[in-house]
Amino acid sequence: MTNNIRFAFAIALAMSCVNTPALAAKKPVLTPMELQALQSKEFEASKASVFASAMSVFQDLGYTINSADIETGFITASSPVKNKTNFWGAMAGIASQGLTKATAFIEQGPNGYTKIRLNFVNSVESSSSYGQRSQADKPILDPLAYRAAWEKIDEALFVRNALAKPASPQTAANPPAGPASTTQQGVTQVPASPVAPSTPSNPAAQK
Description:
By secondary structure, this protein is of the alpha+beta class. It has helices spanning about 1-20, 20-25, 30-40, 45-60, 85-90, 145-165, and strands at about 40-45, 65-70, 75-80, 80-85, 95-110, 115-130, 135-140, 180, 190. Strands 1, 2, 3, 4, 5, 6 and 7 form a seven-stranded antiparallel beta sheet that branches. Strands 8-9 form a two-stranded antiparallel sheet.
């Protein structure tokens, strides 16, 4: 038991050394404008279409929709919980589990475009054998993650618009030249032209 306590203390000390201010300063810090540019995109579609497409993409990725309100344009979703316990944590008696939280804010622009802003956060919750719990949230700032999300939403919008278009009316290849009637056997017959009544050759004979 004493060895386990010493090992856990060593792991905690090593983690505190990794998070020193000198190393943390090396991480790139995005300005608010850079963060908004990373997480936002405009689509040439209505707010309702973008909202429904974002909902569909979240569900296709296996996320659970926690809340959705089209009036405010706000969506919250979360991925399934996964085991995040690594080797060193298991040796120290620390179990970890995590998931990805996602939010989407959708608003209609004045130029006919709809703007959507996504935010992904990795959340890890750890618990020790002594009943201590901790939670750490880390924003996802990888441009590839957001680029993949934009492509998925763009594909969902394309499919939605294609299904919403009305089918074009089909015209006959060879329309009939004149009126026709159909018999019970399905054979089309053209009515014969009316014959003018014949007149006698000698009008005097009728007197």
